[in-house]
Design brief:
Length: 334
């Protein structure tokens, strides 16, 4: 099991991850050399995903080695820095110093969830009970901690019953989430429906969630991706066009229009234009990479019968990523 991230992830990665992705805050903070940052300051750096957060958290625990909140911050910072083994060590220390702090157990669980992805099967089986216990303890300490409940859903869906997995347990968590956050409760129900391969039901849950929060880009993206997975092209197109009309500077909306054209063979002119726009727009770390846009553009051009132009785009994708299997196969098929 990997870290709790986005429940329904966009192209090119379609696998479910363990957490709903969080949008990055476009704020830059830093700690001046030699300056001391307390817990609130480090938490602000973490919220902003500042590059200086890890160093500030390390300095904080050195200055206050018995401060449980400092160790929680360090656990979070190490998770963000992808130093998962060290994050587990920090999380264990945090829960020792602050056994009644739900955040300490939440971040220990997050660290363990990421660490599990780095170890072999024996290691996974060894770490899984600790991961489960961390999130269950977090929920017991703070029943309204939706992030922990969402992570438990992923655990219960993926873990064998011998170590505490079970779909009924996942459903119970989704119901509980809905009492605290109606929208996230619906996305949790959608996640479970997708696990059961009940795509129409999952779409229904996400449509209800979008109706409640129509301007939420993450929800829109999840629903559009599901429409495309179900080959419900007109509904995907309508949702994307509405998104572009409301947010013309959304690079994600532009990419999805291109992806829709590439997958469906429809809306080819609009899809080509959208992908060309996407390639000129600023992108974040969670957005599709240029090689993916080039590959999708090649698909659109190939379906429009423009083989030479398609070949050039597939070659451009491979120049950016020589190991891109999909582009190699598409190029060979021309």
């Amino acid at each position: 099991m990997r870290r709790p991230v986005r429940s329904l992830s966009p192209d090119p990665v379609r696998a479910f991850a363990l957490r709903v992705a969080h949008a990055l805050i476009g704020l830059t903070l830093f700690v001046a050399p030699g300056a001391f940052a307390g817990v609130p300051e480090v938490q602000a750096l973490l919220k902003a995903r500042s590059p200086s957060a890890l160093a500030a958290a390390e300095a904080l625990v050195k200055a206050e080695p018995k401060n449980g909140s400092a160790w929680v911050a360090l656990t979070q910072a190490r998770v963000y820095a992808k130093r998962y083994e060290k994050a587990v060590e920090a999380g264990e220390r945090a829960t020792e110093l602050a056994p009644n702090d739900a955040q300490a157990h939440l971040w220990l669980g997050n660290a363990l969830g990421n660490r599990i992805g780095e170890v072999g099967m024996i290691g996974k089986m060894s770490l899984a009970p600790s991961l489960r216990d961390a999130f269950e303890r977090a929920v017991k300490l703070d029943p309204a901690l939706v992030d922990a409940r969402y992570s438990l859903i992923e655990f219960y869906l993926q873990a064998p019953s011998a170590i505490g997995g079970g779909i009924d347990k996942a459903r119970a968590q989704a119901t509980a989430i809905g009492k605290y956050d109606r929208v996230r409760g619906l996305t949790a129900q959608a996640r479970i429906a997708m696990h059961e391969k009940k795509t129409p039901q999952a779409i229904g849950f996400l449509e209800s969630a979008v109706a409640l929060k129509p301007a939420d880009d993450t929800l829109r993206l999840q629903l559009i991706v599901l429409y495309q997975e179900a080959k419900r092209w007109p509904e995907a197109y309508a949702a994307i066009k509405k998104w572009i009309d409301q947010a013309p500077k959304s690079n994600k909306a532009q990419y999805q229009l291109g992806r829709l054209a590439a997958e469906s063979g429809r809306y080819l002119d609009e899809g080509e234009a959208a992908l060309r726009v996407y390639l000129t727009m600023p992108r974040g770390s969670d957005d599709p990479k240029p090689q993916n846009a080039r590959y999708r553009l090649g698909q659109v051009l190939a379906k429009a019968g423009r083989k030479d132009a398609a070949r050039a785009e597939f070659q451009a994708a491979l120049k950016l990523d020589p190991k891109m299997k999909e582009a190699k196969e598409a190029l060979a098929a021309l």
